[in-house]
Amino acid sequence: MHILALNPFHGGSHKAFLDGWIAHSVRHKWTCLTLPDRHWKWRMRHGAYTFTQRLRVKPPQRPIDLIFTTDMMDVAALGGLLPASYRDVPILCYFHENQLTYPWQDERERDHHFAYTNIQSALAADAVWFNSKFHRDDFFDAAEAFLRRMPDYAPVEALHRARKAASVQYPGIDAPNSRVERAQNVASAIHICWAARWEHDKNPEDLFDALRQLKAAGVPFQLSVLGQWYEKSPSCFDQARQIFKDEIRHWGYLPRTDYLDALAASDCFVSTAHHEFFGISAIEAMNTGCTPLLPNRLAYPEILQTDSRLREACIYDRAVEALVSKLKQLASQRIAQPDRIRTLSDRAIDLASRFHWVKRATEMDEAADDLLTTMRRRRSQTW
């Protein structure tokens, strides 16, 4: 199969996903057209026209069997603007995020025109994939609520059909499965890692609240707070840097190799996120043997669903006190039950291996083949 990938926002997770799939795809040939990852609103508006003009000026040398694009594309506009020779090519739209439920600190800033573009794309695409079951359900629940507020002609039934047809294809990770030999130095403090964008939807306040309680209880720990910071990052980061200055090992953004090394050096990975469409950083941490501590919300229970023991040990109730309890338990077990900690680490690595690109690309290759076969069968029956 020859897949034409149109990536309107070629950066971050969008780029990593496409690069990962293409690099490990053994069944398909690819042609990629991309746009820089900036001015996302403008990308959603002009992407369809810009890409179709490129196709008119310089069409791919081989026939295209499938068009792959993302939630940053106006798929309805793309379908209408494509040259005639591409009109029968199925369009697959992958939702990394969506503009209905993407978090805004001030909900009044949300532009519902872009939210409706996502809804219309889900209706216009021949197939829609989401990066988690949570994201799929979150999107369609919000989309139906949005449409039911409209005065008339709301395509709710079409939305129901799109929901039934939508699939889930998890993203992959590049890191190889390597079992890190973790020195069990019971005299050392537990090393806690938190890695996310430094924004309110990642809920850093709960992390620092839990760490203050841990410190007050006399539990020694080391701390790595990683991720991309911004000029308007929450003020709690500056306060925490002073409060935990004696515990900090890493603070802020690290280059990719150093970031993975920091994960590998940590004992546990904590998420406090209020919003996350998948949770790739948790998977990458688990792949190094970090024991994850994840809130009982979003896609986290879904990520751990195949290992009931890991889920029981690593999912905490949403309250800060529940996180503190889990952290105290892990810190104690490092000393009293090191074999249990090693077992958790091994189980985390085994679970993360499900998301290696070698496996994920193979599954997505097969899903793309199945999609094309289904589309051709439907069209032959129509004819």
Brief sketch in words of this structure:
The protein has 383 residues and is α/β, with parallel strands linked by helices.
Explain this structure.
This protein is an alpha/beta fold and 383 residues long. It folds into 2 domains: 2-172 and 357-382, Rossmann fold, CATH 3.40.50; 190-355, 3-Layer(aba) Sandwich (Rossmann fold), CATH 3.40.50.2000. 48% of the residues lie in helices and 16% in strands. It has helices at residues 12-24, 40-57, 75-81, 112-124, 133-148, 156-165, 204-216, 236-243, 256-265, 280-287, 300-303, 308-314, 320-336, 338-352, 357-382, and strands spanning 2-10, 29-36, 66-70, 91-95, 127-130, 167-168, 190-195, 221-226, 248-252, 268-270, 291-295, 315-316. It has a 6-stranded parallel β-sheet. A 6-stranded parallel β-sheet has the order 9-8-7-10-11-12, with helices on both faces. Helix 4 (112-124) links the parallel strand 4 (91-95) and strand 5. 38% of the residues are buried. The model has no long low-confidence stretch (mean pLDDT 93).
Strand order of the largest sheet: 2-1-3-4-5-6
How many domain regions? 2
CATH homologous superfamily of the largest domain - what is it?
A: Glycogen Phosphorylase B
- The SSE order reads EHEHEHEHEHHEEHEHEHEHEHHEHHH
> Can you count the helices?
15
Given helix and strand content, the structural type is: alpha/beta
CATH C-level name of the largest domain = Alpha Beta
Distance between the termini: 23 Å
Annotation, overall tally of beta strands: 12
Looking at the structure, the CATH topology of the largest domain is Rossmann fold
Mean pLDDT: 93
Please state roughly what percent of the residues sit in beta strands, choosing from under 5%, 5-15%, 15-25%, 25-35%, 35-45% or over 45%. 15-25%
Low-confidence stretches: none
Helix content: 40-55%
